[in-house]
Amino acid sequence: MTNRILPIIALIIAIGIFFGYINPTWNGSIATAKAAIASDDQALAAANAFAVQQNQLVQARAAINPADLTRLATFLPSSVDDVGFILDLNALAARSGISLSNINVMTNGTSAGSGNSSAAGFSAATDPVGSIDLSLSAVGTYAALQAFLSGVEESERLIDVRAITIAGSDTGVYNYGITMRIYWLR
Description:
Structural class: alpha+beta
Number of helices: 5
Mean pLDDT: 83
CATH architecture of the largest domain: 2-Layer Sandwich
CATH superfamily of the largest domain: Ribosomal protein S6/Translation elongation factor EF1B
Largest sheet: 4 strands, antiparallel
Order of helices and strands: HHHEHEHEE
Number of domains: 2
Number of strands: 4
CATH class of the largest domain: Alpha Beta
Helix content: 55-70%
Strand content: 15-25%
CATH topology of the largest domain: Alpha-Beta Plaits
């Protein structure tokens, strides 16, 4: 009789231990730990993919000619630098024979190319290119204005001439109002 009771008691104790300790532990803390490990494995895989992509981009940047990078930094600088730009414009105007005055920097409140930004997938807040408008007054001959605008056109910096107003004169020296937009990389 004890031969039959002892295995039944051991079976009942084993079932009790399974449902009282092993199953809750397995489905509770062990399952949570497995989920955390799986999440960490995904994060580790993403970090490794990022590191690989970063190394590829570093190699691609190293393959670019430094002179081209310098030209690109001039074309689309990383800051506004409106004072330096105004000094460059003033030097160009002096070489062209036109006199600049009343230079005003206007923040236009919109990002560069805001009309096309939604088509490109950028909103005004996330557009990587910023812009600022400059308005200036100039005095000079029409030939001097042409030389000035030609210099602006050939400039290494990205510049849009947005508007030009001309006040007539009988002497051949005209008053010009010019609005320009300059761009920079945010």
